[in-house]
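Minutes, project check-in
Item: structure for the 270-residue chain
Input as provided by the requester:
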Amino acid sequence: MTRADSPRVWFITGAGRGFGREFVLAALAAGDKVVGTARRPSALDDLVEEHRERLVVLPLDVDDRTAVFDVVGKAIAAFGRLDVVVNNAGYGLLGAVEEITEEEARAQLDTNFFGALWVTQAVLPQLRAQGSGHIVQISSVGGVATFGTAGLYAASKFALEGMSEALAHEVGRFGIKVTLVEPGGYATDWGGSSMKIAVANPAYDVVREELAADHGDFVEGDPAEVAAAVLKVVGTEEPPLRLLVGEAIFDGMVAAVEQKIDGWRKARAL
């Protein structure tokens, strides 16, 4: 993965909270170095104080392509290389497809998809020059299957999955690995301050009521589990392209994929 005589260098977006902060903690606990980015860098002041020699925090809004390239350059200058790039910055958007405004739709894709694309493009010259590196794209079970009121969020993650699958085909020859991490429901602030909700159209109230009934007893997992899984994956010689994380949702996601295959077979007769 990297030189045996030195720690890995991580570049993590959206590092100020949720999964991002957990990735920072896991990398530091493993003895690695980290460049974390956040819209509010002060959210990591406590970790900087404790790990001043191994943690650099930089302000970044991944929607800004020029800023992304500038910050990636600063990250490389800080530690001389990049080994693990985690595209984690993102947020949730709920609303029926008809309810989503143009502004909301474009903002969702700007952060969840284009932000990851800009970071990926910015780090690739360095990773190709090294002949190594691992790009970890934080997707979602919403990138595998979706449900009512999550259409635009799923669109951003489906786009990320398609881009990343093609990327894996392109960059493997340069020694670069790609993994899509697909977490289920975890106790982050995804459903709180990281969630935006469209103005409701009463016509879709029944959809929301059905979803609330279906998901009422779901228990969220510990986000540290996802960080532990990522830490394990980036340490393997042949990491998977896709990593579905969350035992509670595994069977449901497999069933969703099997349902698609069954649908293709039934439609074949047409």
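Outcome recorded: The first helix runs from residue 18 to 29.
No further action items on this chain.
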